[in-house]
Amino acid sequence: MIVKEELTTPPPASEERFPVGPANVGASGVPAETFVLNLGPQHPATHGVLRVKMTMDGEYIVRAEPVCGYIHRMQEKMGENRTYAQYLPNTSRIDYLSAMTYTHAFVGAVERAAKIQPPPRAEYIRVITSELNRISSHLVWWGAFLLDLGGFTPLLYAFDDREKILDLLESITGARLTYCYYRVGGLCNDVDDAFLKGTREFVAQMRPRLKMYKALVTDNIILRKRLIDIGPISAELCRKYGATGPVIRGSGVGYDVRKAEPYSAYPEFDFEIPTFKEGDSMARYLVRMEEIVQSLRIIEQALDKLPAGPVMADKVPRVLKLPAGDYCYSVEAARGRFMVRIVSDNREIPYRVKLRTPCLSNLSLFEEASKGMLLADALAVMGSLDLVIPDIDR
Amino acid sequence: MSEAGPVKNVETSQAAPTAVTRPNPLAHLALPFQAVDYAVKGYHVEAAVPPEQVVAAAEMLDREGFALDTITGVDWLADKQMEVVYDFFHPTKGLRVVVRTRISRDKPEIATISTVFPGANWHERETHDFFGIRFLGHPDLTPFLLPEDATYHPLRKDFAG
Question: Which residues on B lie below 8 Å from A254 (Cβ)?
């Protein structure tokens, strides 16, 4: 059992945590003696090639400056030299853990511009596969985050469950990670009965597993002490930096694109947007765990109501020429709001493709949020942001 | 999208509940904010402003409680202009606003809005990387995603790899 008093003890005031004694204070009030600690770009705690240049005062961070671009691939330039259909596979390689939602945003933007309406069955299957993808993404985060915090076992449980999702999605898409299943106007193929049956089985299996996750990890006193009150991020900070996804929802703002700008078949399902007002790492943790529950709810409803019919709109031209203008489409990816902006000049190739990725905005507040923090806590906060570096660097 | 069955008339079927052009929710502001059809464009309000009003627009939207979404450019080579596009979203009202401005391609300079939204820092650095647009007053315009010694701007339309 968790002793409530122990958990709610506030952290020491910043003066105590950040000793500003005469021994280590310069003329401008900053510590006189600091050292630079280079974290990454190859470091297990950054999960990819992120580098953070940290100015340290002992164990405390004076300034942590993320240095990006180590896996920059110029995805936006690639958008300017191939057709819309040719560019589609690129979008699943930006945030490789939520490829479904990313391809959804791209086909959505093209459909919006070309005024193509995918059939209802396709929209339902998009929702089912996107939500499965969200769960598998959250499971990777869960396992990897706990690995960062020193717990190895949860990763094995998470990957066991994730494997079931990957097998399901592989059976209909042919891919295990970088799905390219959605097409402009629908889907590349319909789902089969084995997938529908398997998805129902997965939903039934996952619910008791979440109870086990809670007993094993969420209620664990060591985890709670590592996360509660650590790395508070205010709703105002999120607003100023444009943070979205579980980061803003962990700061008490129920911003979710699925509700704020409803798209696809989402308006037809009953689900909640989990928010926690504390803004600490634990709040972000709990948001994601609750989101898995909500995704299971959505999947179940979509399976129950799945309409019959085609999965591809009629007469989608093989080569698309979008009318001139700019078109945006936003989706709620696993890490927050992802938006594609296409600027067309009435040719087969986009004039400009802009990819608005959630991890860039979510990481950009890290420098401000990590000031005065212990290094070990800062790594926990970075993990709680759930960063995918190719999503930042594009 | 709410009804099953073959969808033929795409014009009307796109008019889902959110798709109706709402009355301009920012009509009380001093800049030319205009409502646009969300179903067609993917955002609700748009304003084309002269470059010197961008900071004022950001301040207005900041006071209205908007969050900074992203900043980017578009190179209009034929017009000899650079377009700078600022996206904002409202965390609780579900509104999306686009502010756009055009600057000369020969002297692509515009004031930074990182003084209003600190999150603009990285977006402006990226836009400087890709387009060579200089954001005046920006704290650090060193390359963000490009190599640290990069002197080229790959999203300019006259960029030859």
Answer: 92
| A52 closest CA partner among A41, A119, A60, B145 | A41
Virtual torsion, Cα A184, A294, A45, A160, nearest 10 deg = -90
Residues of chain A positioned with their CB less than 8 A from the CB of B70: 242, 339, 354, 356, 361
Residues paired with residue B97 on neighbouring β-strands, in sequence order: B45, B88
Percent of chain A with pLDDT over 90: 44
Statement: residue B8 has pLDDT above 90: no
What per-residue confidence (pLDDT) applies to A226? 87
Domain contains A72: no
Query: From the CA of B107, how many Å to the nearest CA of chain A?
Result: 21
Check: CB of residue B32 under 8 Å from CB of residue B54.
Answer: no
> Domain range for residue A248?
82-365
Burial class (CB within 10 angstroms; exposed 0-12, middle 13-18, buried 19+) of A35: exposed
Closest CA to A223 of A140, A139, A135, A147: A147
A200 occurs within a structural domain:
yes
Chain A residues in contact with B14 by the CB 8 A cut-off are 112, 115, 117
Can you tell me the distance from the alpha carbon of A358 to that of A362, in angstroms, rounded to the nearest whole number?
6
Cα–Cα separations (whole angstroms), residue A14 to A60, A154, A373, A381, A384: 11, 33, 9, 17, 21
Domain count, chain A: 2
Helix axes A375-385, A120-148, angle to 10 degrees: 170
Max CA separation in chain B (angstroms): 57
Q: Which of B101, B46, B47 is nearest to B74 (CA)?
A: B101
Alpha helices in chain A (DSSP H): 4-8, 14-17, 75-78, 84-91, 99-114, 120-148, 153-173, 193-213, 221-227, 235-241, 246-249, 257-260, 281-305, 358-364, 366-369, 375-385, 389-393
Residues A54 and A152 in one domain: no
Residues A271, A228 within the same domain: yes
Q: Tens digit of pLDDT for each residue in A110-154?
A: 999 888 999 999 999 999 999 999 999 999 999 989 988 888 888
Do A339 and B69 make contact, defined as CB atoms within 8 angstroms?
Answer: yes
Residues A239 and A174 in one domain: yes
Query: Looking at the whole model, is its pTM more than 0.90?
Result: no
**Degrees (nearest 5) of the Cα angle B77, B79, B84?**
75
In the block, residue with structure tokens 């699943």 = A92
Q: Which of B45, B89, B102, B113 to mutate to test the interface with A (most CBs of A within 10 A)?
A: B89
**A41 within domain boundaries:** yes
